[in-house]
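batch_manifest entry 22 of 60
target: J domain-containing protein
source organism: Alternaria arborescens
requested by: lab member K.T.
priority: normal
notes from requester: please return tokens only, no post-processing; we will run our own comparison against the previous entry in this batch. if the run fails, retry once and flag.
--- input ---
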Amino acid sequence: MSFPTNHYQILGVDIQADDAAIKKAYKKLALENHPDKTLHLSAALVERRTKIFKLATTAYEILLDPIQRAKHDKTLAQSVRPSYTKTEQPFHQPGTGGTEPFQHQYQQRPNPPKPPEPFRPPKFHPFGAPPPNTSAPQPPRRHPFTSGTPPGPIGTTPSPWFYAPVSENPIRTNLSFLNHAGWHFRIEVSKKYKWILRPVLPLLNTDTEGDIMVRISVQRNTYSATVNALKDVVIDVKATPGNKGTALSSIFKETRQGMEICITIGTLPVTAAAPLPPTPAWSWSFDVDLGFLIPFYKELRVSHLMFYPHYPSHAVGKDGAVPAKKPFPMGSPQAELVSLFEEIQFVAMSKGFYCEEVGWAGRKRWRLAAVGSV
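--- output ---
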């Protein structure tokens, strides 16, 4: 079954729905179809539910933006007919049953459309100036943590450039990022964590061809049981420099002063064992904090997770053993943490926990883990 492009129909709300109704509908649909909730389903259903989740998120963000909603309503008014024809059935007809998402009866406006008013010539100011525009659209609401400038038409955008808009929904705070180097990705952080500062991004002239880092200062937040059931972070990579494959690094640092999530996405060299992927796009979800392995610490505790698309033979010892002493192999989570915190002490862990193949939304990745304290 094809998916609708009508955002009201996607969320199953009336065209006159207020923000509260839109938020309620989105929350229900998002929680039902979030990839964390579909791990037990077949690959085809996982793909469908993931598509539904993305459509619902887009619909939610557009309908809560007054300008975007007005544009959508204008387009809808030009395309929606007073009633469905025999070949244009509503997404869900009463009495047909079914539990598939998006099966909602689209609600038309209660009043029939009025005929257009006769043309009246506009009134102009006696001195030739145009009349005052009292209904000019307001600029879109910009999140205080948004940074950068969106790209304009080809040839008008200065180089280098980047754009990092931040948005929120009932379950996550989201950062989208794109820049001149070819990066385009999205980081979604669960409402378990409250963002307290604008994310730290690479300086404008920083070379990001090889990797890119985003640091987010957070604090623990009160949240519902439904949010608690979700993974801490979702990464959605859409494009990379040179369409290369990528690996993911997550460092969660906790001190007496606060907490920080540091996400790094790095391109991988093209080799026989790791050829250029058919598409650089991929999504992943995980929990960032393994601090439960260190219930007590003096100055800080830190969890470092790395996710590779192939077996990370460079970062494990003989027969998959856990690297236990310096110098730690390059590309291992221990090597990075030692470079940041020289006196760090690592928690001992089994080789099965240190290097493990894990899955999410029908995909597989190899995860490396290191947890330590100072």
